[in-house]
């Protein structure tokens, strides 16, 4: 079966429960074929239902002119959906597994590593000349029960061994294929103190009460597994100048001064349209500027702009917010990536976590381009 034939079969099938290696490769090729306009694989990819930019640039082409990576959080289970794969390949230069590299997914049992889903995403990215961001190695959420409810309580020594093995195994598996990692995710409280987690102090990996020392250790382990990977600390609520971003900055300043292998800070940016004020945008720009002055990169890692409805007014406000965020990123060369948390409203996390909200992404449920998409492309022209 040729890739195109398999692509068609997958499109008809709609969903693939299991993916042998050949199917993974063909799904990846499917995205490429569709993105480059090969006809007959589930129909045309130009289903824009609202606004278009005419026959002009895609998002990734427009961003390329600025050497900016535009990414989306994705799920390998959707790659068999024709429009999902074709839109992703056509519009984005980077992907990141939304969930499939998290501890619970990739390391479900003490001796089991499950790389099938992320491997499929890496293959898709390779076939479509996309970069892969890894997410995430050290987080207090998405942990398997063998970590959260161990038969024998963890000590700092045993937990440290587990985390070291986890980081070495996952980063090592993707050495040379994942260019950047969110090594530690959401380690700070809003007041700038360290969040109490299993990794920090409950019981922690040996640095309880020592502030960012456990983050430093995780970075060193990741760096050992892939010295070329760009290592990030990722946070929410630390986008503008505030107590939390001050703590992140202080950590960054300390790590840079001591040559700890931190390459950048990820700013999640899960926002609603109220974020889009001149004061917040200026504060965001100031925060990027101070991190950039340390020689660090900043990436917008999980952008979405949730709405209470999809009225024209709401969609226009959302478009303005996306455009303003993109402009802030473009204005500082430290900002090297603009990634959204998903790309189609069909699979956004928002409706299940924010009751009454949704419509948060640049593409609608049917992969039609929303005003937010057009605003992003226009701001890159
Ligand atoms: O895998 C099961 C699936 O088998 C089952 O059918 C389904 C039914 O509910 O649940 C599935 O797992 C869920 C998974 O999302 C996939 O949909 C988990 O219960 C749910 O907890 C998980 O939520 C994810 C959440 O992180 C926790 O890991 C969201 O999709 C994901 O968007 C969210 O992402 C986080 C970032 O990692 C960090 N920053 C915040 C961001 C949003 O919360």
* Total of helices: 14
- The appropriate CATH architecture is Alpha-Beta Barrel
Average pLDDT, rounded to a whole number, is 89
Radius of gyration: 20 Å
- Low-confidence parts, pLDDT < 50 over ≥5 residues? 1-55
Which structural class do the helices and strands define? Answer: alpha/beta
**CATH homologous superfamily name?**
Glycosidases
The CATH topology label is TIM Barrel
Please describe the biggest sheet, giving its number of strands, its sense, and whether it closes into a barrel: 8 strands, parallel, barrel
Q: Numbering strands along the chain, what is their spatial order in the largest sheet?
A: 1-2-3-4-5-6-8-9
**Shape designation:** globular
How much strand content do the residues show?
5-15%
User: What is the top-level CATH class?
Assistant: Alpha Beta
Helix content: 40-55%
The helix/strand series, from N terminus to C terminus, equals: HHHEHEHHEHHEHEHEEHEHEHH
How far from one another are the termini?
41 Å
Number of domains: 1
Number of strands: 9
């Amino acid at each position: 079966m040729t890739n195109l034939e398999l692509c068609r079969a997958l499109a008809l099938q709609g969903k693939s429960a299991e993916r042998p290696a050949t199917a993974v490769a063909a799904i990846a090729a499917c995205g490429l074929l569709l993105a480059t306009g090969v006809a007959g694989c589930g129909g045309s990819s130009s289903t824009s239902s609202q606004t278009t930019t005419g026959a002009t640039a895609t998002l990734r082409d427009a961003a390329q002119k600025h050497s900016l990576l535009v990414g989306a959080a994705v799920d390998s289970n959707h790659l068999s959906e024709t429009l999902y794969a074709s839109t992703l390949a056509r519009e984005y230069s980077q992907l990141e597994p939304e969930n499939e590299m998290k501890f619970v997914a990739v390391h479900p049992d003490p001796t089991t590593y499950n790389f099938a889903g992320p491997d499929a995403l890496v293959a898709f990215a390779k076939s479509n000349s996309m970069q892969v961001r890894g997410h995430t190695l050290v987080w207090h959420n998405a942990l398997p029960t063998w970590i959260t409810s161990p038969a024998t309580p963890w000590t700092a020594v045993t937990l440290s061994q587990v985390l070291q093995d986890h980081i070495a195994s996952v980063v090592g598996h993707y050495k040379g294929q994942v260019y950047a990692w969110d090594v530690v995710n959401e380690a700070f409280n809003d007041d700038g103190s360290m969040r109490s987690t299993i990794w920090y102090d409950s019981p922690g990996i040996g640095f309880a009460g020592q502030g960012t020392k456990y983050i430093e250790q995780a970075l060193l382990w990741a760096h050992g597994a892939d010295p070329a990977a760009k290592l990030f600390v990722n946070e929410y609520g630390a986008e503008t100048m505030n107590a939390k971003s001050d703590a992140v900055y202080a950590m960054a300043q300390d790590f840079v001064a001591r040559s700890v292998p931190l390459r950048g800070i990820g700013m999640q940016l899960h926002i609603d349209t109220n974020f889009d004020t001149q004061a917040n945008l200026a504060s965001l720009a100031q925060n990027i500027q101070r991190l950039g002055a340390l020689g660090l990169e900043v990436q917008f890692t999980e952008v979405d702009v949730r709405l209470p409805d999809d009225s024209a007014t709401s969609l226009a406000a959302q478009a303005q917010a996306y455009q303003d965020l993109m402009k802030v990123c473009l204005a500082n060369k430290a900002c090297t990536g603009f990634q959204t948390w998903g790309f189609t409203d069909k699979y956004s996390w928002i409706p299940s976590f924010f009751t009454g909200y949704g419509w948060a992404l640049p593409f609608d449920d049917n992969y039609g381009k929303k005003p937010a998409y057009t605003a992003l492309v226009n701001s890159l022209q």
